[in-house]
């Protein structure tokens, strides 16, 4: 896992932040990250993300730690911290990509909760603003990952899923992955 | 406002959904939509989004209604409903763009909360999946808008702001917009 992309969530208030933290983790998984690191007190979110991974596939790892600052400081690779105060994503995305996925260097993407200590701004190789407007750390993470991977994350195949959603013009279709495989073979793909 | 892009949030449970609905509205604003329509019972989210618009600029409108289904049915323009069951965003984004912003037709982007009635799937011109994985309606909206506008939304200028964030490599810098204007003139931009 030398070229992995890891999302680190800093800060979590149990109860109040459960859904936001869960959405950070699910977005990391759906949009191409390999692993999410959550605070120790975010056990409920961790459980939800693991449950989704069990059902919809992986690989995707969920880890809990309480040493977010030291972990970031000791990260051997590139650190990108998402913040509305940072440089414009459209200006730095090519540099971040060149310093990470393009050369097989691990990338840590730090996503803040409420108040992020100044350490993270200083430890980051890139402070990146997905707009310099206040909106949502989940939205910022999503746009950042989609741009980092240039859309390639949308083509990802999932392993060990016990269900797969088949894209539909109207309505919902969820199948067993083996059935989906057979159907794709039938389409000649 | 013939070519406006409007985000409609369907479903809201006061308390439990306040932050998600707020983040849907703030993401709509930050990433280029002209207006968000929230349920009648999402007054607290509406207030937060209006407050951010007052401070960080617009134009951006926040509206509350309780006729989401009829509003969608009667929409004169294109309707895109974001759902993990829909067609892949990478396959339909060009068509949605051609049917809306490219030809000056209004676009309604429907973002569900928990359970979206089947009406919305049927009324939509496009059911669009930003991945066919469960993650976050905020993340889905963000990627959808960034792709719809092809990044042009990131270059938007804000009017009537009383503060502006200046992108920084490290740290935070917030200025009075008049000061920012003078600085940009000094940079020869």
Describe the structure in your own words.
Chains A, B: It catalyses: cytidine(56) in tRNA + S-adenosyl-L-methionine = 2'-O-methylcytidine(56) in tRNA + S-adenosyl-L-homocysteine + H(+). Chains A, B: It is an enzyme of class 2 (transferase). Two copies of one chain form a homodimer. By secondary structure, the first copy, chain A, is of the alpha/beta class. The first copy, chain A, folds into two domains: 154 residues, SPOUT methyltransferase, trefoil knot domain (Alpha/beta knot, 3-Layer(aba) Sandwich); 29 residues, no CATH class. Helix content of chain A is 38%, strand content 22%. In chain A, β1, α1 and β2 form a beta-alpha-beta unit. The radius of gyration of chain A is 17 Å and the shape is globular. At the A-B interface, α1, β4, α4, α5 and α6 of A face α1, β4, α4, α5 and α6 of B.
Outline of this structure?
By secondary structure, chain A is of the alpha/beta class. Chain A is 38% helix and 22% strand.
For the record, what CATH class of the largest domain in chain A applies? Alpha Beta
Count of discrete alpha- or pi-helical segments spanning 4 or more residues of chain A:
7
Low-confidence stretches of chain A: none
How far apart are the first and last residues' alpha carbons of chain A, in Å? 30 Å
- The total strand number of chain A stands at 8
Estimate what percentage of residues of chain A fall within beta strands. Answer: 15-25%
Largest sheet of chain A: 6 strands, parallel
Shape of chain A: globular
What is the CATH topology descriptor of the largest domain in chain A?
Alpha/beta knot
Spatial order of the strands in the main sheet of chain A?
Answer: 3-2-1-5-4-6
Report Rg of chain A.
17 Å
| Largest inter-chain contact set | A-B, 54 and 54 residues
| H/E element order of chain A | EHEHEHEHEHEHEEH
Provide the domain count of chain A. 2
List the quaternary state of the chains: homodimer
């Amino acid at each position: 896992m030398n070229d992995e992309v890891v999302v680190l969530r800093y800060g979590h208030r149990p109860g109040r932040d459960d859904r936001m933290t869960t959405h950070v983790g699910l977005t990391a998984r759906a949009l191409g990250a390999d692993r999410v690191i959550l605070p120790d007190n975010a056990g409920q979110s961790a459980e939800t993300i693991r449950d989704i991974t069990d059902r919809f596939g992986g690989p995707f790892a969920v880890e809990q730690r309480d040493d977010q600052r030291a972990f970031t400081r000791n990260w051997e690779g590139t650190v990108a911290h998402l913040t509305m105060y940072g440089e414009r994503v459209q200006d730095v995305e090519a540099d971040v990509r060149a310093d990470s996925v393009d050369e097989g260097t691990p990338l840590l993407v730090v996503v803040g909760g409420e108040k992020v200590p100044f350490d993270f701004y200083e430890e980051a190789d890139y402070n990146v603003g997905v707009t310099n407007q206040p909106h949502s750390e989940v939205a910022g993470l999503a746009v950042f990952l989609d741009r980092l991977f240039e859309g390639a994350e949308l083509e990802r195949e999932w392993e060990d899923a016990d269900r797969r959603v088949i894209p539909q013009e109207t309505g919902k279709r969820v199948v067993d992955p083996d059935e989906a495989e057979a159907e794709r073979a039938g389409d000649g793909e």
